[in-house]
Amino acid sequence: MSVDSASDHHRRCFSGKPKQDSCWSWVVCLACAASNSLVCGIVNSYGIIFPFLLEEFQQGKALTALAGSIAMVGNGLFSPIVVKVYHRVGPLKTTIIGLCICCGALLLTSQGPNMHLILLTYGVLFGFGSCFVFFPPYLVIPLCFVKRRAFALGLLATGPGAGLFIMSPILEALLVGYHWRKTYTILAGIMAVALPFLCTLGHIPEQDDEQMLDQVDQKETRCKRMCSTLKNKRFVIIMVSMYAYYAVHYIPLVHMARYCEEVGMPATKASRLYLYSGLTSLIIRPVIGRLCDIKGIDACFIYQLAGAINGVATLLLPLATKYFHFILYLVVWGFADGATGCSVCVAIIGCFSDKQRATALGISFSVICVIAAAGPALGGLMADELGSYVPVFYMTGVILLVGSAVIFLLPFFKPENVRHATKSDERLLVVEKCTVV
């Protein structure tokens, strides 16, 4: 490396004003991934606490599961509100507001006298606060990178898998040593650890708002953009498949610990199962992202294959009798969670030009959050009425397979011509992500 290039690299990494693709950009990326791992780990580990709440309040599996499912989808459900706050006060203040809400919600949950109040404090309030922590990094990271933007977003997307892998053994140890109320109090303190990570958002590359906004077609309203995306038949097919798939995708995750206890497995062994799904999801996401970059590999069919494997595994779950069988299922579930979550985003992006992608992603994921929230509650209601989880898993497996089979309709519709992305188009996408929905 020449003296000039080394000097330039030093200035990019350590100058007072942060630059894109600098060392500081990677610091921000890793810090955001760490904070998202904390919040996602607490949310996705609800299934471990689920049996304790069910035994404590005796208010049914449906109501108990609903609190966890609302919190689980809160990361996307409240995103329109978060975007407005983000534009008004910036990423740092937005995430700190969310962190305070999360800590307060966990403290209130620890004092909850019944599941109805916990539904409000944990499901709604913590889900609301977690969105303020989880969502802004996805708006900030594209501003920090140009050359390595996709890879940086891939690192950020490992949050759910990494969080489940890290938090599940911690939560297990807390529940063994303390009451669930004390556990939620400690989780509030653990959540506060995200503060130094979030402080990195106060020092990010500046964006030229006027330059980006000039590229937006002012004549086209949001309503027209939404209608134009729904005219894309391939996108509609993918949406129908996603809605069927994600309506039941989270049922096994929320109810697994309780089901394992019902078949005679100790609670400590049941809670350890979540570690395997988290680790698998963490590993598979960057692998699938790399596969989707390879020419000739269609992300839609990666999504379909992963969904079908998940459906078959769920149909076979009632036959599981040994601990290894449950480990194998959670590994498959983690694989499907990471593979479908990554590939379906690439599939939707591939249906549109840059200008329409943000609108399409906003439409699809906003509706998915509402549908996904109802799934675990529906599964709990069926288990209460039928007295067994076996019919619930059969229903889940069938719907997963049906959702995957919908993708077979795609070859009958030719993809629309998609313009190649330019640097200005990429920057426009950031603006529309902030204004979508």
UniProtKB/TrEMBL annotation:
InterPro entries found in the cross-reference section: MFS, MFS_dom, MFS_trans_sf, Proton-linked_MCT
Alphabetized SUPFAM superfamilies for the sequence: MFS general substrate transporter (SSF103473)
Record has Cytoplasm as a keyword: no
GO molecular function, one term: transmembrane transporter activity
Main subcellular localisation: membrane
Subcellular location: Membrane
Gene3D superfamilies: MFS general substrate transporter like domains (1.20.1250.20)
Residue span(s) of domain Major facilitator superfamily (MFS) profile: 25-415
UniProt-listed PANTHER family: MAJOR FACILITATOR SUPERFAMILY (MFS) PROFILE DOMAIN-CONTAINING PROTEIN, MONOCARBOXYLATE TRANSPORTER
Name of this protein: Major facilitator superfamily (MFS) profile domain-containing protein
Species this protein is from: Pocillopora damicornis
